[in-house]
Design goal:
binds cytidine-5'-triphosphate, binds magnesium ion, alpha/beta, 257 residues, Spore Coat Polysaccharide Biosynthesis Protein SpsA, Chain A
């Protein structure tokens, strides 16, 4: 047996990054069942512009982001490419469009598979969060640049949360626990990652998840939060469209004065 001393721990690949390049993957392949019948959710209009275009602009507005990979509905890649050509987007940003998959997780993986070399930070941002402010995007990137392998924007909860025991249809669900609300957070996107860490998570974690950071948690790594923003809410149900239109109207009003 060798008595050689252990090598020093390898440095965190993400720490002290200089000259790092950031790409954003936008999963936009969902149907939007909870929003009701109509076009795929990402292609629905908000203030006359498709939700996806708002989400792309929100990423491209960050000076850190130099590539946006859009994961389109499986049969909608050509339509999405046409949309990108038809809308003004920053020149300094490159765009790629790939078809998505059956689940959000699969769609994100397809986006990651299409990522060219040379990007060491990856943001994953829901097309369904079209109004995230650029300051939130920048805060996520900064935290990854600072050395965190995974970063999520998070907000405290307004509602008390109960854990229930599932019951038969029509039967009341008994409450089994009330977690301490002060320790709970609602998390948003963009979630930011050291690219190699996220790729490893998507290659190794099995079972369905509802966000990307939870896959990194399952690798045993620490995910950290930065402050989220109420305008980064996810457009999920019809009332969310009303709120999104109101936020846009408020922005137009504020820009006008
Ligand atoms: N998404 C995706 N591929 C899928 C499913 C979802 O890229 N197969 C994307 C959605 O387009 C959305 C994001 O993941 O931008 C968050 O998902 P969600 O809000 O659940 O959107 P949908 O799945 O479209 O909505 P619903 O669950 O109501 O059908
Ligand atoms: Mg969904």
């Amino acid at each position: 047996m060798s008595a050689d001393p252990l090598p020093p721990p390898s440095p965190n690949p993400a720490s002290g990054r200089t000259g790092s390049r950031t790409a954003a993957v936008i999963p936009a392949a969902g149907r939007g069942v909870r929003l009701g019948p109509g076009a795929p959710k990402a292609l629905r209009a908000l203030g006359g512009t498709p939700m996806l275009i708002h989400a792309i602009r929100a990423m491209a507005d960050s000076r850190a982001v130099s590539l946006v990979v859009v994961v389109a509905p499986p049969d909608g890649a050509a339509e999405v490419k046409t949309l990108l050509d038809a809308h003004a987007l920053p020149d300094r940003t490159d765009f790629l469009v790939v078809p998505g998959g059956e689940s959000r997780q699969e769609s994100v993986k397809l986006g990651l598979d299409a990522l060219p070399p040379g990007y060491d930070i990856v943001l994953v941002h829901d097309a369904a969060r079209p109004l995230v402010p650029v300051d939130t995007v920048d805060a996520v990137v900064e935290a990854v640049r600072g050395g965190a392998p995974a970063v999520v924007p998070a907000l405290p909860l307004a509602d008390t949360v109960k854990q229930v025991e599932p019951a038969a249809p029509g039967e009341p669900e008994p409450v089994v626990a009330t977690p301490d609300r002060s320790l709970l957070r609602a998390v948003q996107t963009p979630q930011g990652f050291d690219r190699d860490t996220l790729v490893r998570a998507h290659a190794t974690v099995t079972g369905s998840v509802t966000d990307d950071a939870s896959m990194v948690e399952r690798l045993g790594l620490t995910v950290v939060t930065v402050p989220g923003h109420e305008e980064a809410f996810k457009v999920t149900r019809p009332l969310d469209l009303v709120l999104a239109e109101a936020v846009l109207a408020r922005r137009r009003h504020n820009d006008g004065f």
